[in-house]
Every structure is written in structure tokens, then in C-alpha cells.
Amino acid sequence: MSEYTPQVNLVSRTGAGVVGGVAGGLFLALALQILGHIKPYAQLVGETDASTAWVMTLVVAGAGGGLFGAFLGKFIRGQIIPAVGVGLVYGMITWVLLALIVLPIRGDGGFLGIADSGGIFVLGVYVIFGVATSIVYAVFGPRRRHYYRRRREYGFVMAMPSVSRRRRKSRRSHDDIDIDVDVDIDD
Q1: Predicted local distance difference test score (pLDDT) of residue 5
Q2: How far apart are CA 88 and CA 80, in angstroms?
Q3: Which of 37, 45, 93, 47 is closest to 67 using CA atoms?
Q4: Which of 28, 72, 153, 183 is the most buried (most CB within 10 A)?
Q5: Do 90 and 73 form a contact (C-beta atoms < 8 A)?
Q6: DSSP letter for each residue of 22-64
Q7: Residue 55's pLDDT is what?
Q8: How far apart are CA 143 and CA 182, in angstroms?
Q9: Which stretches in the chain have pLDDT values below 50?
Q10: β-bridge partners, 151
């Protein structure tokens, strides 16, 4: 009796989510740096440096990507269109949790203040972060394989990947057949 581990399990989804989160976090950090709203990430650890803010942005994005892969990754099967839809929702949820709740608590901003959190531009940045995270997850993340049940000769059912092979029919024409004829002519 052999046991198998499905290819899409919690650990592989979480790992792929971390990779997608860090990739999306690079965009997030760059866009927040350009807009001037990266300072609250440095204030998470009591610093004000831009390099600390970049590192904390990538750490938070990686952790958020891991949560994305663990909980939402099962809805993405390597297809881009569902990934974009899930990423839009994930980006808005991330904006609400980070920009409106967590970062103002640790910083000096107002709690649930949309104007203090950067407004609609920062919302757009977080939505693009969510879409980038989900697209990177869909492209480079784990793939699902369909496991079909096949009946074995022993009578029990085992989940195995179905492999169907086409048999090639050999086509021979009369030109391909060589006929050797030995003729002995006696005089």
C-alpha cells in the first residue's frame, strides 16, 4: 500500500504565497516610496529609516503572501483570470487591514482615516500588490493534478494519476517492404 502526498498541500501553497508576496512587496515598497507613504512600515519596529521601511514592507508582504497562499491559494489553479479576481479582493483586504488599522496604530496617524492613509492612490497600490501577488502565485505556484480513481485487478480502489497514452498505428506501404528473392538458375 503506497501513500501519496497531493501536490497542492498547505506547505507548498504557503511557500508559493511567500514568493508571490515578496514579488508583490517589491512593487508595493517602490510605489509607497514614490508616494511618500512608506514611513509607517519603519515605525512598526520603532525606526524611521527608508531601508528599514523597505525591509519591513517585504517582511509584511511575505507574511501576507504566505497567508494568501495558505487560505486563498486553493482557489487559484494556475489560471490568470481567477488569480486577478482573487488578487483584487486580497489587495482591498490588505489595504483595510494594513493601511487603515495596523499601521496607524503603531504610527502617529489616525485610526481608520482614509485621508491619512494616502487615499485612493494608496488603495490602488495595495490592489495592484494583491493582483501581482496572485499572478506570481498562479504562474510559479503549485499546480493541481487531477487524481482519478482506477480499479486495480486486486479489487480495491486507489487514487493514482491517470496516464493515457495513444498507441501509434504503424503504417506500412508496399514500398517499404523489401522482398529478397534468391533465384538459382542451373545451366
Answers
A1: 42
A2: 12
A3: 93
A4: 28
A5: no
A6: HHHHHHHHHHHHHHT--HHHHGGGT---HHHHHHHHHHHHHHH
A7: 95
A8: 62
A9: 1-2, 4-6, 147-149, 151, 153-154
A10: 157
For 58-88, how does the pLDDT look when each residue is reduced to its tens digit (9 = 90+)?
999 999 999 999 998 888 877 888 899 999 9
Residue found by looking up cell 480513481 in the block: 149
3-state secondary structure labels for all residues of the chain: CCCCCCCCCHHHHHHHHHHHHHHHHHHHHHHHHHHCCCHHHHHHHCCCCHHHHHHHHHHHHHHHHHHHHHHCHHHCCCCHHHHHHHHHHHHHHHHHHHHHHHHHHHCCCCCCCCCCCCHHHHHHHHHHHHHHHHHHHHHHCCCCCCEEEEECCCCCEEEEECCCCCCCCCCCCHHHCCCCCCCCCCC
Query: Do residues 28 and 98 lie in contact, with contact meaning Cβ atoms separated by under 8 Å?
Result: no
List, for residues 44-55, the tens digit of each pLDDT value: 888 889 999 999
Tell me, what's the pLDDT at 56? Answer: 94
Residue 37: the pLDDT is 87
